[in-house]
Specification:
Length: 114
């Protein structure tokens, strides 16, 4: 089993106060780095999803759901807990609106707590 190094952005325990905010880009970038890929298109190919799925996840328009998380687990060999730690923000029921989107509401972005 391969593990990614824990950075100061990666939560090290389950206390809500210590968790970093939800950021799918941290996970996507870590997978790209782990497999030495050039871009999101190659990551989409590796995960066997359409490139627009990765784009929508990266731009906070689509959550990382159970199916995508399991695909990432199967391909990378990382545990679900490690993947979720890289995403961050999993203590909350709903994702907060990212600062880049301002006042737009993201009603369909829900977390699945396993």
């Amino acid at each position: 089993m391969t593990t990614l190094p824990i950075t100061q952005d990666t939560p090290t325990n389950n206390r809500l106060d210590d968790q970093v905010p939800y950021d799918p880009n941290r996970l996507l970038d870590a997978l790209i780095k782990k497999f030495r890929l050039k871009n999101d298109g190659e990551l989409a190919q590796l995960l066997e999803v359409h490139p627009t799925v990765i784009s929508k996840v990266r731009h906070y328009r689509f959550p990382i759901g159970a199916t995508l998380l399991i695909s990432m687990h199967e391909v990378s060999g990382l545990t679900i807990a490690e993947l979720r730690a890289l995403i961050g923000g999993y203590g909350k029921k709903l994702a907060t609106t990212p600062p880049a989107l301002g006042e737009k509401k993201i009603e369909s972005m829900k977390f699945i707590n396993a």
